[in-house]
Design goal:
2 strands; 508 residues; mainly alpha; single chain; globular; 21 helices
């Protein structure tokens, strides 16, 4: 297998798989399910081959594959990975087959289109992380909207149409502003160099030379698009609706990977393309991030629906990622990147666990449960591990990311104020309050509802196969994070060096 074609194989595996699944008869449900899992597993294997051949000591992009796409506009099919994007590619290919496995018995209606949507969505997400041409990036960014819209709108809950339209309109509004900024950026490059280009590597050299005022507008357009996707307070209102109405598989992919496209965009595009504006607006953005951390946690505390509680917790946890990104120290940026993965694993596990219990009882309200430790002890243990991981207990993955972000933001010259760290740290305490309180009400005490003994059963083998790999990584990152931090260090340092080279006077 040629190394420079590896990423193309990775990208086109789910695309081809999604098309082939359409040729399977609708009645052959087991074949459709196995085929979907097989295609997603092949993509995971290819991503592992990329990982084992990746040189983590280099900061530049590797496995580059470039083909001229639109000659007249100098637009290319141009893909590659560095340590940051590789980690998110691995997260995507790891979660997708597990997500398909988790829907084995819950999705019966129009299964063929569901499998098509998940595989097509995987291709869109991979394209976002692999693109080194901003036009290509935009194509994938928009393409993944379509399958997610249908996943929520067709297989979601009672208010699915409202939630899917709200998700689509919010994301599309931000995306169109980013499109204007992309065109503006490419036209500016053509005036400076004599050729229109959307090549990200070339734009890294050109964009920071843009005058401060114009750069501020471009930064704002890119930032708004990514902030909606994160979502950052106060642009988060689409998220609880989308999460609550989406099927379990949709919630896992949405929380696990889709939201990371926003935080990835901040690291990959906002910081290196517009370093002066990123430094200028960092304190304001960090204030919004800290408000999001506290607000998301406080709103989670008053939720009566398990899924809504986990959804609002995402607003809180991703506030940490945004704070770490704009603190702009090596510790905080590495913490932000590893926290993207941590959130994908912890929140993905929580949504899967809510899905398991919902499948049996068709109830998500916390008050309905109580004392289930006596009925489903293994499930109760798994829920505890996932909750402690999300809280950030030392020894589990969440602690590493939050510790690095808080350490980096405390040392930050850009923020230059330790109050950010103090207020952000309170989010960890609040997380313990709402997650442990939810856990106590669901798992301990007396069995309130006699129906639970009839309907509630512990994990079956398939559910264990889905959850055990996630818990392995939750513990692995918590105990030995170097495996993952070494992968991202060179790329993170390279971005910060690039930012400081254009903002040196400020950072001095």
């Amino acid at each position: 297998m040629e190394q420079n074609l590896l990423l193309t194989y990775l990208l086109f595996t789910p695309i081809i798989g999604s098309v082939l699944v359409l040729f399977i008869k609708q009645e052959q449900k087991n074949l459709i399910r196995w085929f979907g899992v097989l295609i997603a597993s092949v993509a995971f294997v290819i991503s592992l081959i990329v990982y084992f051949n990746f040189d983590a000591s280099k900061s530049e992009f590797q496995f580059i594959h470039q083909i001229v796409w639109i000659q007249s506009l100098n637009v290319s099919y141009y893909i590659g990975v560095d340590g940051i994007s590789l980690l998110l590619v691995l997260l995507t290919t790891f979660l997708t087959p597990l997500t398909l496995l988790s829907t084995w018995s819950s999705i019966e209606n129009n299964l063929k289109m569901f499998t098509f949507s998940i595989l097509f969505l995987e291709a869109g997400m991979l394209g976002v992380f692999l693109s080194l041409d901003i036009f290509l990036f935009y194509v994938f960014w928009e393409a993944m909207l379509i399958p997610m819209y249908f996943i929520i709108g067709i297989w979601g809950g009672e208010r699915r149409i409202y939630a899917s339209i709200k998700f689509f309109i919010f994301t599309m509004a931000g995306s169109l502003l980013m499109l204007v900024a992309i065109i503006w950026l490419a036209v500016y490059a053509s005036q400076l160099t004599g050729k229109f280009t959307t090549n990200l590597i070339e734009l890294y050299k050109i964009a920071p030379t843009i005058t401060q005022q114009i750069q501020g507008w471009m930064f704002g357009a890119f930032f708004l698009s990514f902030a909606i996707k994160v979502p950052l307070f106060p642009l988060h209102t689409w998220l609880p609706d989308a999460h609550v109405e989406a099927p379990t598989a949709g919630s896992v992919i949405l929380a696990g990977v889709l939201l990371k496209m926003g935080t990835y965009g901040l690291v990959r595009y906002c910081l290196p393309l517009f370093p002066q504006s990123a430094v200028q607006f960092a304190p304001l953005i960090s204030v919004l991030a800290v408000i999001g951390i506290i607000y998301g946690a406080l709103v989670s505390m008053v939720q009566t629906d398990m899924k809504k509680l986990v959804a609002y917790s995402s607003v809180s946890h991703l506030g940490f990622v945004v704070l770490g990104t704009f603190a702009m120290t090596i510790e905080s940026v590495q913490g932000a990147v590893i926290q993207m993965v941590n959130h994908g694993l912890s929140t993905g596990a929580l949504f899967l666990l809510v899905g398991v219990i919902y499948e049996r009882t068709h109830r998500r309200d916390i008050a309905y449960y109580g004392g289930i430790a006596k009925i489903v002890p293994v499930y109760s243990t798994a829920l505890l591990i996932a909750s402690l991981s999300s809280i950030g207990l030392p020894g589990l993955n969440g602690f590493i990311g939050e510790f690095l972000i808080l350490l980096g933001s405390f040392k930050s010259q850009v923020l230059d104020n330790w109050w950010y760290t103090v207020f952000a740290a309170s989010g960890v305490i609040f997380a313990a309050v709402y997650l442990l309180w939810m856990y106590q009400r669901i798992v301990f005490g007396v069995v309130k509802n006699p129906d639970l003994k009839n309907h509630l059963t512990d994990f079956n083998k398939r559910e264990l196969i889905v959850l055990i790999p996630i818990f392995v990584f939750i513990v692995w990152i918590g105990i030995y994070p170097s495996t993952f931090l070494n992968l991202t260090e060179a790329a993170s340092q390279s971005i910060l060096n690039h930012v400081s080279s254009f903002t040196f006077d400020f950072l001095k």
